[in-house]
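Input record (one chain):
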Amino acid sequence: MTRYLSGSGWWRYATFGAMNLSQGLLCGLAFTSYFFLLTDLKLTPVQVGAAVAWARLPWAFKLLWGPILDRYVGGAQGRRRPFILAGQFLLGAFVLALAAVPKDAEWLGVIATLVFLASTAATLQNVAINGLCVDLVAQNELGRTNAVIWATKSIGVAIGGGALYAATAYVPWSVLLTALALVIWALTIIPLLVRERAPGEVSEHGTRRLEFAELRRTFSVPRVWVALLAALLVPLGYGLLSTPYQFLLRDQLQWSKELIGLLTGVLDPLVGVAGSLTGGFLTDRFGARRIMVFASLGMAATMGVLALCSDCWQSQGFMFTWYGAHFIVQYLFGAGLLAFFMSLSNPAIGATHIGIYFALNNLCYTFCDWGGGKLLADHGYVMTFAICAVVQVAVMVPLLWCDPQRVRAGFLLPHKGSAT
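The corresponding structure, as predicted from the sequence alone:
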């Protein structure tokens, strides 16, 4: 029996969950395991930050996939599904190729290129799955859907990041990366089993697709431009924290691979699932903007505590407690953020529109990978953490002028001159 995503919440959750688990595996590999591999090779903070920024660059430019996906109106295989399957296959292929490369300084150029290509494949799958979410998920279901997305992605990040890196103390990189590629391909079975819509079923935006008139209609809404500014700024505080914090663990505190694996491979998925599910429920209950502001203030508070309590850094108990508190709030923020951008996206050009939001988001992250290393080199740990806390409060200001309900209503109004 053919299964249709438009008619089954459970199959939507399974599909979104499996694909975001794949994305998480790649993100954990590219932004955590790769980071620690570079530190083990004795690169400086600025060099490591630049290398990770290169790996993140495809996420900043993933909006280029959007127009391609949105011009396609769909065929027998659906509008988004062919691109999801293509991205999954390529992602697994590049990770498998990475498994064959020696992990030493002489091969850094090849490693960096393959990580870049794997990230590029993941962005194709990401843009397609986000477009599918905008196409299919009702407004009152966004919070729950994003809870599933962020929970599964956090599990993937933990496995591909801390858990994989810790396992390299016992198992060769080549074996672990081969297994990772096979898992990515195995997850592709789920989108192979389903279709997007039943034959003859019409979406809320009808047959509208990416055209100049639709772009003009979308970006003529002033609040959309404020939302674009918010997308560029909101990750700045906690984004700048990433490189200095990871250097604190591995370089300053000299934590072992096993201890880092316990932190990022065990504690991280636990707080990720808890924060994502809680964030999804609260987003449906109170709205995405309120949750984002609340969580942003929470992250600012935890970063402030980290700056003020430098004498406690040597305490593993303190560092584990801090990590749990900070990242449960960050995952809460993430669930609200995804719902926020989806509610601000025009379904007719959903892949392009939400892709622009997240491209700006990831452009900020790309700067932060380098900027965090630069802050650390110039100001040290305490001042860097304090700056991150202050910035995280300031970047919430544009949210005051973003009302998702009013923006969304404008997208769904009929064209001028159309029948009513």
